[in-house]
Amino acid sequence: MEYIYYQEIPKTDVLIGIMELHKHVFEGAELRLEELTQKKNLLIFVAIDSDRVVGFKIGYEFNDHMFYSWLGGVHSDYRGKGIASELMRRQHEKVKSLGYPKVRTISRNKRREMLLLNIKFGFDVIETFHSEKGSHKIVLEKVLS
């Protein structure tokens, strides 16, 4: 397994692989390139197995003091192998080195594996809310020490 990070939108097959994997992980939802281009200080981590993107973790600057861990996922064929944990560990290490003292994410009960991974990695639940679409969201933050 190879892990690579980008501080910009990756070119070539990596971007296509991320978009295809996003569709797989999020029940057909498309990740639009425009969404990526609008993010300040974008940071993308990928896990690659034999030229295939099998995991990704995307985040961006929320403000001067916080990084937002936005999207992530691992292909169902590769789950349970520690890939999500390794992507998160690498993201937090890099974010801390860039000077962000905190990282924030938003999860849902529907995605329990990710919610539990966030808690395992030291995130605290700070609030909950209902989105415009009516789904219950859980806001989590972690101090990077």
TrEMBL record:
Gene3D superfamilies: 3.40.630.30. The keyword S-adenosyl-L-methionine does not apply. Residues 1-145 form the N-acetyltransferase domain. InterPro entries: Acyl_CoA_acyltransferase, GNAT_dom. This is GNAT family N-acetyltransferase. GO terms for molecular function: acyltransferase activity, transferring groups other than amino-acyl groups. Keywords: Transferase.
